[in-house]
Inverse folding.
């Protein structure tokens, strides 16, 4: 669970409105803090994972294909943002983020964190098609779509061979821990940072708020 | 960077909640912030340390205020606006409160403007504009005011140097009213917008505090009383001191000068410093007793104040930087817009050129299908065809008529061409066509004149000759006379008039000659008169000879025509004209000398134009 601040969003707005220079300085400071994490996270992206995953995609399909893994694209997809995010469903906004946005990079990041052995084969169900009853496997998202029952596990094992999934959630106390802070690249880098960057970012924000308030007190 | 919320590390999150919660929180936050700010302001204003500092600052503020007032009065007196000094002072105070600008800055700006305009109301309006520009651009108010004052006098360089959207060339092309209008349009409401910001409101409060300081300095005793400081003795002393100073000052010099100098003396005097130090110690002691905290000393307070001033200066620097950046961006945008507009204009010109070209082609097409021109061209061709058909058989009159018609058509065609050239604004072509038209009109005029003259000639000839031939009375008389002389022989070739012997007509008498040689004026006049008479006689004879020659030619023609069969009536039978041998003497009474001259001129003129004297219907010579 990330650290929660109070008044930080309003402070950022005020900074941008009254002291844009100070706002930019804060953004630069935050960027300087986040950039090393991004660099480390990019280093966790392997050059190749599975030879077949790097093959060129077919060009004439009408559906979105499984994204081809390209190490350079995946590395480029890891970045940071110092602008406040939109409000999520829970009503939270983040003042800074590190994200893995490329499709293949996100798959590499998260594959196996929900089902470490891959999705299971769907159960056999009855199907009525063209006036004929027969049997077929369930095609739901929670089931593997492959004819190979071990496809998921083989894929995840191959990814695990290049990088392990690390849980970056170091929160303690009551409650269930979310799995959503687990991953092979950015979450691993964030976990290895041990919260130092997080504290530094918050400190930078607080420091700027203090400077801002002092300036206005002085102006008053 | 589209962010997948599944693969993101959120750092330093904040719960903002739903919209309604957010609004409620915002309102609460604002309220609490406002309350805190108010509390802090009040706390700052009425803390014990602040009161001491406030007291000292008040004296200085009042001193400065008086200086400003005196400066304003002096400057207004210089431009004969001294009577308006109190009202302008009030105006500046109100403006300072409304905008948060320091009264001193406004006074200096107003002084600059009033010196330039010499008119209080104009200076007030310009001050408002200067404030708008200053707060809209971040430029110093005094700089803007000076630039406006110079611009009012016609020097726009300073205004251009402000870099507020004017170029030197633009300013040179405008008068001050236009410049002022543009400035008001561009920066209207800038001051109001600036004042409406948090910083603007704080500046207004700050200005109010400054004015309060002035008021406190003006009435230091009442100011200390408002601060609830129970230092009665000090109050009494200071009141007495102020009164004494006031009375002393009122004696000989102006109130303002003395107040200022006396306050400065108070500030500088060790006695006043000692009093203030005692005052400070008392306040610190009271503050410690009341709050339980050690009130900072004046030095500490001054150090804090200096720190805050440094922060303020830092903030001002940032504001200037922001304004400069904003201006740079605005200029960049302006340049981009200008470039865009120029490109647009260039494109429009290119399109217009294409349209003009198309219009020209269309015009050419219209020329081709211009019915007037076609008809004229056809008429010219028809005339030419007519001329060709008539060929050598055409009479001169017909040829002349045809030439006239053709010339008229040519002139009409030229007129149409000239109209087109004028419509096309083709000066060169219009000039050429005008010249050509003039030439053609002259030709047409000549032709028309010839026609007229031919008509006149016809009339003249009709009166002159045919009347003798056709008039029956004359004819009868002639036949009768011819019958009388029947048998006599008429010799057409014999001289009609015997020539006179003019031998010696030029001879002068010896007496006249000798006198002429001697230079006798009468002899000279006589010789000249004699020469003139001889010359006139010669001319008269020559004219008569020409007329007779013409008549002879005509008679010869008639005679020649009579040789053809059926050409003449019987009385023109040559046999009937066979005269007896005795010569017939015909005496012509010269009643036609003027007529002869007319005929002669007509003949000469027509000969010069190459026109035959025979006309349509006349007897043609064989």
């Amino acid at each position: 669970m990330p650290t929660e601040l109070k008044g930080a969003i309003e402070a950022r707005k005020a900074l941008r409105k009254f002291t844009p220079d100070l706002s930019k300085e804060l953004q630069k400071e935050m960027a300087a803090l986040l950039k090393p994490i991004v660099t480390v996270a990019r280093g966790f992206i392997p050059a190749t994972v599975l030879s077949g995953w790097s093959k060129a995609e077919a060009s004439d399909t009408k559906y979105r294909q499984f994204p081809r893994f390209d190490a350079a694209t995946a590395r480029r997809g890891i970045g940071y943002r110092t602008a406040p995010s939109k409000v999520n469903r829970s009503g939270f906004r983040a003042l800074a983020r590190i994200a893995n946005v490329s499709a293949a990079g996100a798959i590499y990041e998260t594959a196996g964190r929900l089902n470490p052995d891959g999705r299971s084969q769907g159960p056999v169900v009855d199907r009525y098609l063209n006036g004929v009853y027969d049997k077929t496997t369930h095609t739901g998202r929670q089931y593997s779509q492959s004819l190979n029952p071990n496809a998921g596990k083989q894929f995840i094992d191959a990814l695990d061979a290049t990088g392990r999934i690390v849980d970056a959630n170091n929160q303690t106390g009551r409650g269930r821990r979310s799995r959503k802070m687990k991953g092979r690249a950015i979450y691993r880098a964030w976990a290895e940072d041990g919260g130092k960057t997080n504290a530094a970012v918050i400190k930078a924000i607080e420091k700027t708020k203090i400077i801002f308030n002092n300036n206005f007190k002085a102006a008053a | 960077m589209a962010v997948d919320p599944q693969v993101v590390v959120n750092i330093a999150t904040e719960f903002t909640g739903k919209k309604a919660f957010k609004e409620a929180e915002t309102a609460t936050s604002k309220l609490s912030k406002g309350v805190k700010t108010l509390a802090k302001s009040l706390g700052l204003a009425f803390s014990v340390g602040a009161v001491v500092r406030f007291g000292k600052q008040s004296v200085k503020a009042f001193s400065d205020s008086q200086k400003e007032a005196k400066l304003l009065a002096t400057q207004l007196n210089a431009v004969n606006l001294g009577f308006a000094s109190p009202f302008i002072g009030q105006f500046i105070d109100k403006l300072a409160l409304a905008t948060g600008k320091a009264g001193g800055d406004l006074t200096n700006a107003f002084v600059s403007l009033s010196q330039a305009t010499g008119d209080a109301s104009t200076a007030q309006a310009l001050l408002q504009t200067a404030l708008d520009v200053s707060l809209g651009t971040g430029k110093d108010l005094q700089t803007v005011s000076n630039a406006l004052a110079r611009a009012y006098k016609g020097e726009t360089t300073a205004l251009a140097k402000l870099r507020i959207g004017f170029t030197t060339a633009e300013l040179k092309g405008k008068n001050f009213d236009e410049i002022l209008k543009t400035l008001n349009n561009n920066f209207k409401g800038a001051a109001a917008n600036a004042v409406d910001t948090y910083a603007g409101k704080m500046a207004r409060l700050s200005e109010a505090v400054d004015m309060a300081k002035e008021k406190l300095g003006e009435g230091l005793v009442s100011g200390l009383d408002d601060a609830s400081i129970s230092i009665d003795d000090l109050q009494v002393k200071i009141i007495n001191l102020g009164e004494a100073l006031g009375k002393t000052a009122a004696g000989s010099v102006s109130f303002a000068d003395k107040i200022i100098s006396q306050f400065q003396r108070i500030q500088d005097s060790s006695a006043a410093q000692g009093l203030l130090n005692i005052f400070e110690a008392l306040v610190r002691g009271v503050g410690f007793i009341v709050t339980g905290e050690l009130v900072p000393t004046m030095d500490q307070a001054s150090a804090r104040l200096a720190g805050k001033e440094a922060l303020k200066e830092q903030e001002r620097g940032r504001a200037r930087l922001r304004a400069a950046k904003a201006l740079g961006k605005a200029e960049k945008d302006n340049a981009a817009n200008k470039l865009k507009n120029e490109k647009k204009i260039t494109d429009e010109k290119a399109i217009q050129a294409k349209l003009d070209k198309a219009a020209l082609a269309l015009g050419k097409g219209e020329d081709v299908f211009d019915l007037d021109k076609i008809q004229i061209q056809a008429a010219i061709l028809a005339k030419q065809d007519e001329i060709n058909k008539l060929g050598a058989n055409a009479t001169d009159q017909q040829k002349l008529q045809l030439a006239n018609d053709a010339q008229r058509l040519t002139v009409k065609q030229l007129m149409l061409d000239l109209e087109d050239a004028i419509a096309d604004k083709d000066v060169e072509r219009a000039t050429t066509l005008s010249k050509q038209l003039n030439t053609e009109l002259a030709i047409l005029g000549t032709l028309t004149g010839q026609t007229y003259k031919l008509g006149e000639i016809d009339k003249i000839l009709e009166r002159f000759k045919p009347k003798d031939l056709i008039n029956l009375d004359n004819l009868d008389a002639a036949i009768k006379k011819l019958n009388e002389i029947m048998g006599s022989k008429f010799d057409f070739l014999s001289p009609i008039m015997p020539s006179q012997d003019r031998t010696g007509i030029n001879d002068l008498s010896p007496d006249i000659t000798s006198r002429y040689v001697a230079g006798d004026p009468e002899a000279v006049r006589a010789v000249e008169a004699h020469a003139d008479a001889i010359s006139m006689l010669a001319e008269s004879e020559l004219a008569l000879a020409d007329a007779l020659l013409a008549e002879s030619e005509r008679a010869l023609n008639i005679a020649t025509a009579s040789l053809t069969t059926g050409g003449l009536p019987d009385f023109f039978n040559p046999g009937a004209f066979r005269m007896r041998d005795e010569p017939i003497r015909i005496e012509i009474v010269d009643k036609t000398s003027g007529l002869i001259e007319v005929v002669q001129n007509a003949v000469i003129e027509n000969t010069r134009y190459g026109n035959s004297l025979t006309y349509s219907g006349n007897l043609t010579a064989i």
